[in-house]
Amino acid sequence: MTSNSGESVLKVEDLSVTFATESGAIRAVDHLSFEVKRGQTLGIVGESGCGKSVTCLAIMRLLPQPFGTISSGRILMKDMDIAALPKAKLPSIRGKKIAMIFQEPMTALNPVETVESQIKEVFQLHFPEMNAEAQNAEAIDLLKRVGINAPEQRLKSYPHQLSGGMRQRVMIAMALACKPDVLIADEPTTALDVTIQAQILELLRDLQVSSGMSIIFITHDLGVVAEMCDQVLVMYGGRPVEYGSVEDIFGSTSHPYTRGLLNSLPRLDALPKSVLKTIPGMVPPLNQMPQGCRFQTRCSHKTEICSSEGPKENAPTKIKSKTVQESQGHYSWCKRVDEWGNIK
Amino acid sequence: MLQCESEPMTEYLLRRLLLIIPTFLGITMLVFIVTRFVPGGPIEKLILSKQMGSMDGKSSGMSSTSGRASQGTLSEEQLEQLNAYYGFDKPVITAYFIWLGKVLQFDLGNSTRYGEPVWDSIKSRLPISAFYGFSTMLITYLICIPLGVLKAVRHKTWFDNISSIFVFIGYAIPGYVVGILLMVVFASKLEWLPMGKFISDGFEDLTTPQKILDVIRHAVLPLTAYVVGSFALMTFMMKNNLLDQLSSDYVRTAIAKGCSYRRAVVMHAFRNSLIPLATNFGNNIAFLLSGSFLIEKIFNIDGMGLLGYESIVERDYPIVMGVLVISALLQLTGNILSDICVAIVDPRIQFR
Q: Do A60 and B257 touch (CB under 8 A)?
């Protein structure tokens, strides 16, 4: 287990992302703050549309232009605020300081370029002084590190000649090419079958240990979170609902939504073919979110206070941690958390 | 698997080339048979003109003795002679193979109208159509690809919207109407450019630079008409292809790697967006070489389009068949050319 007192690599403060739509501005991420420490993995969990991918695109400054804008907050790497960087500076950050791998390895690689030219492009972009031999050696080494057999031959391949798992490995190799401080993995295993998923997760863990990089891992799979992450941020409707160490989130769950997600997991000790538990209802559209707590429409613990007052974005309730990792902090954005302690 | 990639390619092309033969036979045989059975063939034309001639003769006071002797019709012997001359006395299949045999010896027969060899008329006109065809294609690509790219990159800006207005106007007006307009304005009113034809009458006496200038001066208006006709479609095809590619995942990957937007467009999206254009490439060659008879007619250019059109109107079947042979061969090789182009830009294409 990595230490908790590691230095902060990426700090997101009060981040809001607004999208201009035909029916007005929609806030897809609402006053979100979190921190990623060196060599650690932060998992961001939530249903589709909760803003987890948008958060990552905002960190990369890859929000779809001209509709998506960072409307408040700072994204700090050391003293540099990515949110405030001029556009011209972004290419020197992307791929070098922060790299990203995407959900869909089948389409994320350019179909008409070889693996070789796509990997080497990263060197050309960030290390233009590197000569051809060094690039070649480095590219082969990268493919070896991500567990690709016969890397010399694979370099000459086109993406369509590779399987999905291989392509994701190539994506990872590309992302690692400049030894980034932070790797953002946006559901990197969702499109892969289970055995390949396990291999890719193991690969990411090994690479993290060997390179010491930090990972932001976006997923809706709590099983993957338990396996991969040190810290977890649970999001709902663009807002944080619970934030803490993986032990806190699983061991002393402090938000009804997180509890709902955990209860929805299939369990080995459940009766065979029994119906999976679900969270009733649907996520309301972002422009029809209720006043107060956004989860109230689906929450079985809802009372008056949830809609009249609701949680403050910047003032979550700090949960007294039962685990030793109290220093990390465990926060819940549920107004009633003190009343019932940990929810079942 | 990787090193033998060129092997199936040549094999595939060879097979495609061989497939030209049955396709070519099918096309020509079909048209040959049709020319046999549609009314208004050369003999009927001759009979008609004879009758017209004899009527003219009667109305002008029976001055023509020969007109009276034939009574405005042809005798049985004369008809048989004509049938034999045109090859109509044999069964259609036999006649077709006789024609084919001659074609294989590069003999396309003689024009029934002028009596001169068909090949000579085609030979004198093909370069003219080819000149216009290739110039049109070159100019179209040179305008449409950069314009389409710019429009895609500046999607929904004032540049895109205003250029779209012009492209739509170009799309709405057929090329030949543009031709007429241009001619009225620039040749007739302003007299800046010649009215038509491919070259001036005194072309032979000009010096080489003057000759080049002469061809260019003649080419400006028809080329504009040609380009306007094909330019809207190509521009929008380029723009939409590129827009599709710009929103694709791999472009996002490229930017996430640290590519500037410009580099992502040029190095990644652009080549992918050329694939549909490459599919079209060979067809364009065939289409442009065969010329547009309307534009050729307006500008009085003796090209393939006009030749083919007039030969059909005049039922000059040897020329019809000759033009068909050339355009069929162009179309069929154009298809293969398209395949090669696509294979060059898209490594996913595999020839089996």
A: no
